[in-house]
Specification:
three-stranded antiparallel beta sheet, mainly alpha, 50s Ribosomal Protein L17, Chain: A, 65% helix
């Protein structure tokens, strides 16, 4: 009779059951996940989680207690060296059971039991989901006056294109100012005179420069007049000269 016995005997004697659970627990600690039936996984969870809690305290006594259950030096070393640092901040719930379905042979419910902190793919997905989630509150929002009155919102005076054009113009002005400043500083450093040289010119040099400018202007005007006179104009001028000559000859004869 099984009066007041709440655990699953798994159809085995106590010695066989303890040896099986010890073997499964050491395999779970070394490989971080194993595939088994749901009944065995639930029994293994109650067997291995107290040992993981014991591993948080790395002392000789706790190592001997864990070894009395696992009977495997490699599993004990793995538990205290790698598993315990990762589960140090977790207050229980070190394992996870993932159901797979029924086994083809005897239709038994199969599952995977694994350590929670060693499933890297699941941890990455949860971190990405946390990073994407954003909190949105409606407290800070204020309705515009047009929404309260029921009118359509008025168009903004300045469009986006105008704002972009203004910003570009301001940037070009800044660039030009910076270039002029750099040129001035370069001139000062090199010692080349700028506007002061023009102011220091003698009156003789100024008069010579004005004369040269006048000559250039006269040459330009003469070139323009020659270009404006076409061959037709020249013919008309020649005909006019002939008529004048004929009139003069007639007057002389009279």
């Amino acid at each position: 009779m099984r009066h007041r016995k709440g655990f699953n005997h798994l159809g085995r004697k106590s010695e066989h059951r303890k040896a099986m659970l010890a073997n499964m627990a050491s395999s779970l600690i070394i490989h971080k996940r194993i595939t088994t039936t749901e009944a065995k996984a639930k029994a293994l969870r109650t067997y291995v989680e107290p040992l993981i809690t014991r591993s948080k305290e790395d002392t000789t006594h706790s190592r001997r207690v864990v070894f009395s259950y696992l009977k495997d030096k490699q599993a004990v070393a793995e538990l205290f060296r790698e598993v315990s640092p990762k589960v140090a901040e977790r207050p229980g719930g070190y394992t996870r059971i993932l159901k797979l379905g029924n086994r083809p042979g005897d239709n038994a419910d199969m599952c995977i039991i694994e350590l929670v902190d060693f499933n890297e793919l699941l941890l990455e997905s949860t971190q990405e989901a946390k990073a994407k989630t954003t909190r949105r509150s409606r407290r800070g929002r204020k309705k515009p006056a047009s929404a309260e009155t029921g009118q359509a919102p008025a168009q903004e005076e300045t469009s986006g294109a105008e704002i972009v054009a203004e910003t570009q113009a301001a940037e070009t002005q800044k660039m030009e100012e910076a270039e002029t400043e750099t040129e001035e500083t370069a001139m000062e450093e090199s010692g080349v005179p700028g506007e002061t040289a023009e102011a220091e010119q003698t009156p003789e040099e100024e008069n010579a420069g004005e004369a040269v400018k006048k000559e250039e202007k006269q040459e330009i005007k003469a070139a323009k007049t020659t270009e404006e006179t076409t061959p037709e104009d020249k013919k008309e001028a020649g005909e006019g000269n002939k008529e004048d000559k004929e009139e003069k000859e007639d007057k002389e004869e009279k």
